[in-house]
Please model this.
Amino acid sequence: MINCEVINMFRGRQWPFDEFFRDMDEEFRYMEENMARMLDEARKMSSKKPGEGGPYVYGFSMRVGPDGKPHIEEFGNVPGIEVPTSDSSERREPLTDIIEGNKDITVIAELPGIAREDIKLDVNEESLSIKVDTADRKYYKDLSLPCKVKPDATKARYKNGVLEVKVKRAKEKREKGVSVKVE
Model:
């Protein structure tokens, strides 16, 4: 038997979980709207004639950086991802990862289906550019490096669709200290 005092106590009040479920309902509504929007965009892209656009590639990589904050990196060739070329729908942005070591910076890029000779790398003190332009596949990625590097000390390997680029860190110039007499 339910105690009438307990029922009267909660009458006219919110249940403890009402706010939680209201927030969840709002999140689900937001997700449903986004999914409907993405499906509409996919339908529009798939309604093109054969040979126009496609194949479409999209993905993202999420990792926690040294600062403890999550970093999300998108890759692919879906319209909306900015790739600085006029034919961005044909180019794919490869999945890349930058690994900082004590003496060097390692960049890993996934470039499946191409030959080693087709990879063009440009390195300067602050950035690395990866470009592949063949009849079948086109890739492009411009990466800002986390520190200054020595471009002339760069080595690259390509095996099984994975490009590994190692760049030596530039030594920071440290000025010699002097003793100062306190008067």
